[in-house]
Design goal:
10 helices, binds nickel (II) ion, about 180 residues, mainly alpha, Hypothetical protein af1432
């Protein structure tokens, strides 16, 4: 079977993201932030092994998805390095920080839905990755809200990938256990 993505494009995006996020840590840990990018792109690779789509677009946006939101990288820089589809995808995945918190998610989902389905898939992969055990400092209310937000993402974007939708659904289901464990602790 022929690959529908390029290892060289993956490496180029990963190096770019590693430089951009240099010095950032995964919240609540001493681990480099780029672990998150490895997990999100790994979820995309899982989907690419069973579903047809533009693998380069999905993987590059997965690796670069937090650059505009969390680093000095601009839309224009992404456009000149990776082209308009990747830059537009990353911009759609970037929350508008000037909006109130709940509305910024709805706004981002709306902009993601105007993009090709590969961008929807990155948002699913991002939330799958973020539904591992919640950081120890999170309060119960925050965990519950995060889970509700995940359901909102699932409902909005599930049609982009049966594979990722099923994986997110199971993560949402198992996340309840984290809440129960919290209650019992
Ligand atoms: Ni992310």
């Amino acid at each position: 079977m022929k690959l529908n993505w390029s290892q060289d494009n993956y490496i180029k995006a990963y190096k770019f993201a590693a430089h951009a996020h240099q010095g950032q840590l995964y919240p609540g840990t001493e681990i480099s932030y780029i672990m998150h990018l490895s997990f999100v792109s790994m979820e995309i690779l899982g989907a690419l092994s069973v579903e047809e789509c533009n693998g380069d677009l999905a993987l590059q946006c997965a690796i670069l998805h937090d650059t505009i939101e969390d680093t000095d990288i601009t839309f224009e820089q992404l456009k000149s390095e990776f082209g308009l589809p990747v830059a537009s995808g990353v911009r759609a995945l970037t929350k508008n920080a000037s909006l109130p918190k709940h509305y910024s998610m709805q706004d981002s989902l709306q902009r993601i839905k105007e993009q090709p389905r590969e961008i929807w898939m990155v948002k699913l992969a991002d939330r799958i990755t973020n539904l591992q055990a919640p950081p120890p400092h999170w309060q119960q209310g925050k965990i519950i809200r995060y889970r509700e937000e995940a359901i909102e993402i699932y409902e909005a974007l599930k049609d982009s990938s049966d594979f990722l939708a099923a994986r997110l659904a199971s993560k949402i289901k198992n996340y309840i256990k984290s809440i129960n464990e919290f209650n019992n602790s």
